[in-house]
Design a protein that fits this description.
22-stranded antiparallel barrel, 5 helices, globular, Maltoporin, Chain A, mainly beta, 5% helix, single chain, 684 residues
């Protein structure tokens, strides 16, 4: 269901800025965290971070991974500026569950690092990041954490009047222009939502001269070769409200064309169409509410070698989720649920390293919470039935793929506690046992993967991945001052990883060919024992203003925001480090606010990463400085936010320890150099 957006979203944004003063204020999503918090408690047991409003606006990047990078425990896979997934506590891929409004958001980003996540922060209301394996209701693929994108495309609460927001932005580092609009309106019986966005960027500037063999821009330049990107999309949705609940539907689309920076003349044309139906019924009786979500996602992308289409990937997924919340029994409240997901995947072309496949899963889950005089206890369980089938290749000349099926029955359980030690102190703890069924590519891959420069080999005999995770946290708050710290350890008895075998393969797949040209190192999926340990901390200290050391009437407020994390991941069988683990990080920001003005200046320091497995490249330490300035004003009923920010002020040359390109494509894909961005947001 394509939309002919092109540059229309930017035009709509400009038009809306001119007319927004005549619109009435609309309601927006509340600030209650929903991810891993199905019962709506105010205090969260699982460690969760939420981004919305100005916090999301000032962090917004063109990819999900880079938008979230730097949050406690969160880094990025960084396959250049156009494709990155979040890495949480050292885990990435299918151990991080990406959701859209609490439902499945399938794509091919976990299959290969060069595949982008088809979402954009321009039309996202809030992003919630749940760290750790305590969200059992989302399955074994959430063992590392959950990222939930909330966009209100199906409004869940009535909207009185009409309103929305519009965004315009321009960045110098890649000459990016971006624009987005969101319109909402309704009354106590219906609500409507419409959004659209467009993003267009050129090559990304870096502090080093790089060679480029792209026919359109050959030669040497201080830009990452083949890093331009264009994305556009939008949605419309609506909800009808009745006395005992509501029902709504939405249709959305995403289109993107971007360069894959590992290859100078390869681009990806991506499309994703999603249709969703959601509703809630409050019948009374034992079950106080029944909430259901159904969605269909049609995803596909084509990899072009110059102007010629190459490998085509498609993935069509149906998702059903039903949750029934029971009434309170004493101090006990909770819910039971059912989830079904069916995905059909295919890859056709010379670089198809995985066969056509189908994955079906059915799950039952339970989540309960018990209120006590000292805090709250939570416990949950989940059982699944997963079937993964391989159909081989549609090309009869390709016979290297395994054909057949595997069945798995993962079971998981978790318990958590929140203890109120004093009005200012809380302790939290989570213990979870999680099982995950292997993915289709982990079982059946067998072919050259150009993006990683390897020959990937699956293992049809893989068993379930099993892990036990423990998390201990403390929180303190006194007025504007606060601090959080979490320590964790996760131990895998069968961690499925892609490991070097020592073999090399020729272009025809022959193992250890005599010719040295056109060979690829062989990497195979296998299970090992592994351990992840880490620490996360963050907080705010009021230096000036209310409750600070000084409080002059007109001096505003000055806060020191600090953060830091570290993770250590080890293959216990060999006592070697696991690949692509973020180094120790520490950062601080001075935030000054006075009336309509807010100014921020800070840094993030990344330690050197020398703890890498054989064959991976070590990275040097680096520090990225940044600054921003915002000014808020009101024009009739419209609230305007003017902003400017500078990233990587010192134009530091740096390489990401969590990016595979640092090893496979060095030195061609450093982190972006200095860039200034200016923009305007209007809410009305």
């Amino acid at each position: 269901m394509p939309f002919p957006f092109r540059r229309n979203a930017v035009g709509i944004a400009v038009l809306s800025l001119a007319c927004c003063a005549s619109w009435a204020q609309s309601s927006t999503l509340g600030e209650v965290t929903v991810t891993g918090n199905p019962l709506g408690a105010n205090d969260l047991i699982a460690p969760t971070t939420s981004l919305s409003n100005d916090a999301l606006l000032m962090r917004s990047q063109s990819t999900l991974g880079e938008t979230l990078n730097g949050l406690p425990g969160v880094s990025s896979t960084y396959f250049g500026p156009n494709a990155s997934r979040p890495t949480i506590r050292g885990q990435d891929g299918d151990r991080i569950r990406i959701l859209q409004n609490g439902g499945a958001a399938p794509d091919a980003s976990s299959l290969s690092y060069d595949h982008a996540v088809p979402v954009d922060a321009l039309v996202t209301e809030r992003i919630e990041v749940l760290r750790g394996p305590s969200a059992l209701q989302y399955g074994g693929s959430a063992v590392g954490g959950v990222v939930n994108l909330l966009d209100n495309r199906i409004p869940t609460e009535p909207i009185e009047g009409f309103g929305g927001r519009a965004d315009l932005g321009y960045a110098t580092g890649n000459r990016e222009t971006s624009g987005g609009v969101v319109f909402e309106g309704g009354n106590n019986r219906y609500a409507l939502h419409v959004d659209a966005f467009h993003r267009d960027s050129d090559g990304v500037s870096v502090p080093i001269d790089l060679q480029c063999a792209n026919p359109q821009r050959p030669g040497i330049a201080r830009k990452i070769c083949n890093s331009a990107n264009q994305a556009e999309g939008g949605a419309f949705g609506g909800t009808l409200f009745f006395d005992q609940g509501w029902i709504g539907a939405s249709a959305s689309t995403y289109r993107s064309t971007y360069g894959t920076v590992a290859e100078d003349d390869v681009t990806i044309g991506m499309k994703s169409d999603r249709y969703a139906l959601e509703g809630e019924w409050r019948p009374g009786g034992f079950f106080s509410s029944v909430h259901a979500k159904l969605s269909r996602t049609d995803y596909g992308h084509t990899e072009y070698e110059g102007p010629m289409p190459g490998t085509v990937f498609t993935k069509n997924t149906d998702d059903v989720r039903i949750e029934a919340r029971h009434r309170r029994i004493g101090n006990l409240e909770g819910l039971v649920g059912f989830a079904n997901e069916t995905g059909d995947f295919s890859a056709d072309g010379e670089e198809a390293f995985v066969p056509a496949s189908r994955t079906r899963s059915n799950a039952m889950f339970l989540h309960e919470e018990l209120g006590t005089s000292w805090g709250r206890l939570s416990f949950g369980a989940r059982t699944e039935q997963v079937k993964v089938q391989s159909f081989g290749s549609d090309d009869p000349s390709v016979t290297r793929f395994f054909t057949g099926e595997r069945d798995f029955s993962p079971h998981s359980a978790a318990i958590g506690a929140l203890v109120d030690l004093a009005p200012q102190w809380q302790l939290t703890s989570n213990l979870a046992y999680t099982e995950r069924a292997p993915k289709d590519y982990e079982l059946f891959a067998n072919g050259p993967h150009v993006a990683t420069g390897t020959w990937e080999l699956g293992n049809p005999d893989l068993q379930k991945e099993k892990s036990t995770g423990f998390d201990l946290g403390a929180q303190w708050r006194a007025g504007p001052d606060n601090a959080k710290v979490n320590a964790y350890v996760t131990r895998f008895s069968n961690y499925i990883g892609l490991n070097a075998t020592g073999n090399v393969r020729g272009e025809d797949g022959e193992v250890n060919p005599a010719a040295s040209d056109g060979t690829l190192p062989e990497y195979a999926y296998s299970g090992v024992r592994a351990r992840f340990t880490g620490l996360e901390a963050s907080g705010t200290w009021r230096l000036l203003g209310n409750d600070g050391f000084s409080r002059p009437d007109d001096a505003g407020t000055l806060d020191l925001e600090w953060r830091g994390d570290l993770v250590r991941a080890t293959d216990i069988d060999t006592d070697r480090p696991l690949p692509r683990i973020a180094p120790a990080r520490a950062g601080a920001t001075l935030a000054y606010g006075n009336g309509p003005w807010t100014a921020r200046f800070g840094f993030d320091h990344y330690a050197a990463q020398h703890r890498v497995p054989p064959g991976d490249r070590e990275t040097d330490a680096y520090t990225l400085w940044n600054a921003s300035l915002t000014y808020k004003m009101k024009v009739q009923r419209a609230n305007l936010t003017w902003y400017a920010r500078i990233d990587n002020i010192t134009n530091e040359l740096a390489y990401s320890a969590t990016s595979i390109l640092t090893t496979t494509a060095f030195p061609n894909v450093p982190l972006p150099g200095r860039s200034a961005k200016v923009g305007l947001r209007a809410t009305f």
